Structure formats: C-alpha cells, structure tokens
Amino acid sequence: MTDPSGKAIGTVGVAYDLTDRKAIEKGLHDLAAAKDEFIASISHELRTPLTAVIGFAELLREVAAEGLSPDAVDMAEAIVQESNDLAYIVDDLLVAARSSVDDVSVLSEVVSLRDLVERVSGTLGFGYAATGGEGLVVGDAARIRQIVRNLLVNSRKYGNPPIGVSIEQSGDRVRLIVADRGPGIDAAFIDVVFQPYWRERRVEHGSTTGLGLGLPISRVLAEARGGTIGYSRHDGETRFTLTLPAAAVAATAGATGRYRLE
Asked: Which of 92, 173, 206, 232 is the most buried (most CB within 10 A)?
C-alpha cells in the first residue's frame, strides 16, 4: 500500500484457510485407495471359483461332443466362452486395481508374438494370423497374451474389416500392429483413449461397450516390461501398435520352438 507520492505506508496480506480443502483431498485419496483395494480383493476371490467353472465347462463340452444333441454342444460351448469372457474381465480388473496399489509383477521370458496371436485368435474364434516374422520378445507370456487379446477384441468391436495383424522388427524393438478399416477415434478423444473406464459410446457387431479397461490396462502391462502402446491413423486405416524389447535368443538344443535368453 502506498500514499499518493508512491511512498510505502503499509502492506496488505490475504490468508486462506486450506484445512477443509486438504481434508477433502485426503478423503478423496483414501476413497480411491479403498476402491482399488476392494476391486483387487473381489477380483481375487472370484478367480478361484471361476477357474473351477471353466474347467468343468470344458469337460462338459468334451462330453457333449461325444454323443449329446447339437443343442447341448452349443450350450456347453456357450458356457465355456462366457466363462472365459468373465475370466478376462477379472484379469483386467486385477491389473486396473494393482496398477495404482502396487507394482504389476511381470516375468522375463522369451515370447513369440506370432504364436500368441494365433493362440489368442483361435481361443476367441477370430481366426487371425500375424504376418511378418516370429516376433521374439522379452516379456511375460501371460501379460502379453492379455495385451494381444485386448487389442484384437478392441478392433473386432469398434473397427471394420479387414482386420490385419503384422509383426515388424527394427533394431532391438519388435512391433505388433493391429489394423482395421474402422472410423478410428474422434480427434477430441485421442488424449483420453488410454485412460481407465473411458470407452466409445458406439456399439458395433451387436456387442456392448465394455468397461473401458482394455487399452489402459494394455498400456500398463506394456510399460511394465519396457514397452509402449500407441494409436495412429494411416491412409484410412486405424492402427494400434504394441512395441516390446526384442529378445536376443538361442534355440534350446533338441527342443523345436523353444528358446532361452542369451
């Protein structure tokens, strides 16, 4: 504060009481942590009975195929498929909760992306096969399988055919590219597509929009092993690209298709 001549004659200070604001922020933080712990706990508890359901459903499918009616075979197959879908959701929820509660554990092993694509695609009934090389990477087979499944399901749900899967290697990095001819993501949403629980409102092929966890969880799992996932558009084609460290490997003696880290 100054007088008309500009000489300082005093000071003015403003104080704000932030006690309530800090209490609210702490409450929100504790609520978020409790939510994640609850999701992780419930998901873990669901896994044990779900594993039994899947196992018995697969046995039932085998029995049905041996002599029961076509309708019984179809119903057994539906039980297996729906049980597996539920297991995938549980896996995604576990990662979503753990990514903010503790570190996501991953193994270091040699994984063939081409083999994973064929196995995951076959399980889902998609029939896709990857073009390109073997795509040997260092990672956790179970976690990478989860990423591949999420990318394939995402393109199947929101993209348009033809859907293609290709593998490329450049130096010490391997890229798995899942491409389709769908409309892609609106420019206004590109920055949020990898955020948990965000999802497209469109429904394609008679499917639901899901939980909005597939892409965010895939990014968490990729980054946990030193990889990345990105989105891009090229010549009317939508692409999701998984990049992982290439494996420097040697074939294990006498075991075709098996590898060890050098």
From this structure: 92
Rounded to the nearest integer, the mean pLDDT of the chain is 77
Spell out a b/e string for 182-192, using b for 16 or more CB atoms within 10 Å of the CB, else e.
bebbeeeeeee
Q: How far apart are CA 162 and CA 226, in angstroms?
A: 30
Determine contact, residues 220/95, Cβ cutoff 8 Å.
yes
Which tokens hold the place of 121? Answer: 């695609």
- Is the torsion defined by CA of 189, 193, 197, 199 positive or negative? positive
Say if strands 237-245 and 249-251 run parallel, antiparallel, or are unpaired. Answer: unpaired
219 closest CA partner among 118, 89, 44, 92: 92
Least confident of 43-57, 131-145, 156-170: 43-57
Identify the pLDDT of residue 175.
97
Confidence class of residue 86 from pLDDT cuts 50, 70 and 90? Answer: confident
Mean pLDDT across the stretch 190-194?
Answer: 81
Task: Tell me the residue type at 72.
Answer: A
* CB-CB contact of 190 with 184 (8 Å): no
Instruction: Kindly tell me if the per-residue pLDDT of 202 is higher than 60.
Output: no
Cross-strand bridge partners of residue 230: 241
Res. 206: pLDDT tops 50:
no
Q: What's the rounded Cα separation, in Å, for the pair 247 and 175?
A: 12
For 32-45, give one letter per residue: b (16+ CB within 10 A) or e: eeeebeebbeebee
Please list the residues that pair with 251 across neighbouring strands.
Answer: 259
Instruction: Give start and end residues of each alpha helix (H) in the chain.
Output: 19-65, 70-101, 113-124, 141-158, 214-224
